[in-house]
Amino acid sequence: MTKPNNKVLIVLAFFSIYVIWGSTYLLNKIAVTELPPFKLAAIRFLVASILIFIIAKILGIGIAITRKQFKNTVIAGFLFLTFGNGVVVWALKYVDSGFAALEISAQPLVVLLLMRFFERKKIQPMSIVGIVLGMIGMYLLVSQTEIISNENTIIGLLMIFACMISWGYSSIFVAKADLPSNFFVNTGYQMLAGGTMLLIASFLFGEQWTNPIEWSGKVQFSMLILITFGSIVAFTSFNYLLKNVSPEKVATSTYVNPIIALLLGWYFLEEQITKQSIIAAIVLLTGVYFINTTKKLTRYSRFRK
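Structure (tokenized):
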């Protein structure tokens, strides 16, 4: 594959994880009003994995993988989807979709700190500026008493933070793990594993299952988009990016997602957008520039040791 083609694919992949994933907060919020959270996520990923394997078969793509690759996809599926996504869907029962997305926008900070802790990777000066801005933005976000006054909201926010750690660690793990070389097949196995574990969780928690025909039209539509675009297209793009760009750059999608989620939640669900949330979003988005930029802070000679 030539470099120009690589650049085009990377741009399209970033569009997928920025815009498409930004809309999944709204879609999950709509669906979770009628469906139990683990059931919702299990159906989404299991159906998506089956479709992926069918498409791979039609296209003549081999789906055979090694035992080690299968083990690694199970680990990634649990960290990314079973815990990292399933619990977020659960939290959306108590947290507005845009607010949840804004909290998750701190993901790049988590990835940077995890890479520093596990890999001893040096944090560049510009990234430090991004971390500081991110912390300020997060403080502005969670210090709004009118939004987090509900006890269940606080629990939801804490569980979302735990998901961020799970997602961040898995991003680092996937970047180096032995996984299926085909990103489409890799996505399919991760979703199969994650969806299966979500299915088990759904039964363990005693969630009620209903016939999809009985769902409302808006829930059926949300599930359709979540399966096709939110799962197959966006998650395949995500796995592709993890192998072609650094994990902290992939994590910057969580800065753009909240803006999409805030606007969609406000427009379709009439969710509240406070002035403080807007300021927090601006601060967080400014941080993405400093984390993602290749520029370096200039140190004048008189300040050098």
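The two ends are 46 Å apart (CA to CA). DSSP finds 14 helices and no strands in the chain.
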